[in-house]
Every structure is written in structure tokens, then in C-alpha cells.
Prior knowledge:
With 455 residues, this protein is of the alpha+beta class.
Amino acid sequence: MAQKPSIPKGTRDFGPAEMARRNYIFNTIREVYSLYGFEQIETPAMENLSTLMGKYGEEGDKLLFKILNSGDFLRGITPDELAQGATGHLAAQLCEKGLRYDLTVPFARYVVQHREELTLPFRRYQIQPVWRADRPQKGRYREFYQCDADVVGSDSLLCEVELMQIIDEVFRRFGIRVCIKINNRKILSGIAEMIGEADKIVDITVAIDKLDKIGLDAVNEELREDGISEEAIRKLQPIINQSGTNDEKIATMREALAGSEVGQKGIDEVEYVLNIIQNPKFKIQNDVELDLTLARGLNYYTGCIFEVKALDVEIGSITGGGRYDNLTGIFGMPGLSGVGISFGADRIYDVLNQLDLYPEAVTTATQVLFINFGEKETDYSLPIVASLRKQGVRCEIYPDSSKMKKQMQYANQKAIPFVAMTGETEMQAGKVTLKNMTTGEQKLVSPEELASFVL
């Protein structure tokens, strides 16, 4: 007996009903992005490894899926090199390309490569899959979709304000209650200065970014392993454990970072954004929290950073992003600032499923099924089907003149809300019998009336 086929761990198949729900997610996000003037682009699934490597930190580099060179990929590799098993060295020789880890670095490459074609500031959105060689677990996949929006070519904090408004509007439309967390990498740099570990800023941000996942004790242990002194760890604890309102946290950090110029600048930026989005005239609906433990482990962030948590479901971050001042500099265009967010479509899909928040119409594909009684009846039905489709009614005619029971069962299994029957009686009267599959009610109506009963 042949082995049943399977898919790689951390990936998923999506059937028609699931795709209807996913398209609802994509279309909702796409509509909001368009309201704010963002334009869509796409980039290849694979990039040159030279584009990807070194952009996500050491941990991110380990999670890149690398693609073997085509043809004789072992050409030029000596038996000694294979025997030594120098993984990093061999990967560089065997693999010139990799699957994209996110959409931000490919976007930076796109901006530099197409600079002469773009009008700055450039507002783009991108909805495509990304891949990470991570350990699959609940809410974490090896292949998943991101829905990114970025503004590049502007230093204005109004960009951050609008991105937070977009986040709020998208989740308002979904009906998901969220907490939008904000911090600033400049504040984190100021904290590193304050505790005497300015040169360890990357290690500190990577460690405290894991606080929700591994807990405070494990974070402190990781800091020790990274060479952070006990005195510095002790000074860090009040900041990690800080509570209170956003205004109280800002006041506390202004005092704590009094001697740090970069820290004060970070506080100024966060305060500016919070003051605008909390304006009563257009205050966003979801909770906004200044979270000083939020670090966003990716190395390219330099300013405000965002993360979104669902309030009614236990799951990781469902949206994230931030300001990056010089990401394009690694591709030869220094000084071009950008800021962006990314909705995790797969996690949003899981949240909507758990909370059952999809509109009823989303999962309905066909609205009317025409029963096939035979060739003569089909000839009568086809023009009616064509007319309904022109009016925007999603309908189909059963392809075979099977038993009535089988065709009705098909309608039930596909949750088709209406069935249309055109037998001898209906044809003689120039009518159609329309059955509501939910109530069981049947009506004899004219072809011209059909759409009004269905829509």
C-alpha cells in the first residue's frame, strides 16, 4: 500500500471554506491600507543570500531556509571539506539563494534597486508568504503570510501615528479586542547606557524581548550568559517590572534617563505619538500601552517599535513593526529612513476562528444551486444562471442529471442557502421554484425576481 502523502511540519493546506476566510482577512487589510494611500508591490519568494544574511541578527540568520544551487551543487567542494562538516562554510558555497524571512529586507532591496522609479516618500503594502526554519508550535509556522505596510523616505512621526491608526482600524473591522504596545529602541539604548552596558544593547534587547515567552528568571539567566554584570541586571529589574499609566511611565523614565541624550530623544518620540493618538477628537478605540520590555529583537529597528496582542485569545504577537533609520544603507543607499508594520495573517486567522468572528457571508461561496433535471431543463436554466451572475449572484448548475436526493445533499454539504428548480411545471409557467435551504420554504417566482430573493 502506497504511503499517504503529507506536507512539511509547520505548513498547512487551506480548503475552499478556509480560503474564503483568509481572503476576508487579506481584503480587509488591503482595503484599510488603500484608504491611507499605500500602493501594492510584490517581490520574489527567493532572494540572494547576500541580500538576507546579516540583516536579522545571529538568531535570525539561523532560521533562514537556504536553497541548494541548481545542477552539480557539490562542484568545487573537496572531500576534506565535506568530512570536516563546516556547516556555515559549506552553506555559503552550496547555496546562493534563500527563501525570504520577512518582507522588510526585500522591500529595502526593492527601494534601492528601483530608486529612480519611486516618488518619495513611498508608501507600499505587500501581502505575501515568508518562511522561517523555526520549531513549529501553536501559532508559529514555518510558512506564513505577512501583510506589510511601510513608508520610506520620511522621518516624520506622523507616519508612526498613521500606522497605529491603521492597526486600530483593521482590528476594529475584525471585531478583535487588542492591546497595541509601543516602545522605542532609543529608550532601550538609554537604559543600556544607564546600567553601564551600552555595548551590550543587542544582547539586552534580544533577551528582554523573550520575557513573555520564557519569564523573568530565564531572561536574567540569559543576560548573565551574555556577560551582563549582576549590578547591571539588578538596575534593569525596576524597569522591566515597571507599571502604571503611560504618562506615569514616561515621567519615571524621563527621570531615570536624565543623563542619556538618546534615551530622552526616544521618550520625546513616544510621547509625541501617544499624545496624538489619545486626542479625544480621533482617539483610537483599542488599548495602547507603553511597554518598556518591548524590544522587537530584529537589529534593524532604531526608533518607535510596535507589537499587538489579542486580549481574548492566548497567542503570540499578531502584529508588529517599527522605525528603521538606515536599512537601505546596507544596500548602498544610506540615510533613507522608513517605518512599517506587519499583520500576521495566519495568527489573525487562528484568532478569528477561536472567537468565531467571521461574517456569515464570508464562508458562503455559491448562493444558488440550480437542480439539473435533464437536457431540456438545463437549456431553460442556463440563460437564467447567466443573468443572475451578471447581477452579482454567485450560482452554479449541477453538472449531471443525477437523482434529486444526491443534488440536494450536495447543496447541504456545501451550505448553499438556496436551490432553484426548473421542472416541466416551472418551464410551462416561465417560472422558477426557489427553495430556502435554511427554512425549507419554497416560492414560485419569475426569473426576473430571483436576484431580489437571494441578495
